[in-house]
Design goal:
8 helices, six-stranded mixed β-sheet
Length: about 300
């Protein structure tokens, strides 16, 4: 589902909570005082709360619903395009250590990946050379993935609620007013647009994140390739694992950098050394890769593995 489609679902859920209209929660009638999508009080990005509803009862009791909205059919990814800032929001100040330990636990899996593909095998396009792997967070494993090395409660708090978000995303803007902790989600709503036609439909499907069956959470690694025939990379995203290319003994040598997660990008950092190495081998770009191009792994000291 596209970001636009997610936005349509969020807007539809919000539309059920019209100002001063009633809704019922645990037998108590509330009138809607405000309902909006929280926005960070500074900078860009998204809060974990997608829908914020505040209501008051006739007796003066107030309630806040801080809802994370997901679709049942496309709720696999918790976070794509993970950067250092996003990783810190999820995992706290030790985010780099957490990701590094996860990467090292599957080092052999990275070394088994084909780094050069002249002919193309889905989803890799022809004439591709890997620059490294990007990072996503998802609730289903992929071909190259590892369980997040966190406790179940830490996953609930960091991944679903957002308790490690920066202050500007925790204390978010709701209708241009900063509401303390409004960006930290409390409820999970996994639904589809056709299943929502009233406030009752929303309320009845809400599950407290602390009680939700969240299952496992994975770090997913997806390749960032340099395509020699068009002289382009798969984008400027930071890489969880990088590949430093050089010439060694007349062929390409590849050094896997496993301990500097999200510090370098494919486009800005790893492409240049690869292009230089190709030129040293008389392979100029843009071009189609020769079918006999070879490579081998080197350790961090440049010794062949």
């Amino acid at each position: 589902m596209t970001r636009k489609a997610y936005g349509q679902l969020e807007d539809w859920v919000l539309s059920q909570f019209e100002y001063h209209q009633p809704f019922f929660l645990k037998g108590t009638k509330y009138l809607v005082d405000r309902a909006a999508k929280p926005r960070p009080s500074a900078g860009g990005g998204e809060c974990k709360t997608d829908v914020f509803v505040e209501g008051s009862s006739q007796s003066g009791k107030t309630v806040q619903l801080k809802i994370s909205v997901k679709t049942r059919s496309t709720s696999e990814f918790q976070q794509n395009k993970v950067s250092a800032v996003i990783a810190e929001a999820y995992f706290g100040p030790n985010w780099s250590t957490i990701i590094r330990e996860a990467i090292l636990s599957i080092e052999d899996a990275f070394r088994k990946q084909e780094l050069i593909d002249a002919n193309g095998r889905y989803p890799t396009r022809p004439n591709s050379i890997k620059l490294g792997w990007k990072l996503e967070i998802a609730n289903k494993p992929r071909a190259l993935s590892v369980k997040v090395p966190l406790s179940e409660q830490e996953i609930r708090d960091f991944v679903y609620k957002g308790t490690n978000q920066p202050t500007e995303k925790q204390d978010a803007l709701v209708n241009d007013e900063i509401i303390i902790k409004s960006g930290i989600a409390e409820y999970l709503l996994v639904t589809e647009i056709e299943e929502i036609n009233s406030t009752d439909d929303v309320i009845n499907q809400l599950v407290l994140i602390d009680e939700a069956d969240i299952g496992d959470t994975y770090l997913i690694f997806t390749a960032n390739n340099y395509r020699t025939d068009v002289d382009k990379t798969d984008g400027p995203r930071p890489l969880a694992v990088q590949i430093e290319w050089l010439v060694d003994s007349g062929e390409l040598g590849a050094i896997l950098i496993l301990d500097e997660p999200l510090e370098k990008t494919g486009e800005g950092d790893m492409k240049g050394p690869l292009v230089s190495a190709l030129k040293d081998l008389d392979i100029y770009v843009p071009c189609k890769l020769p079918g006999n191009i070879t490579y081998h792994y080197l350790d961090l000291k440049g010794k062949k593995i």
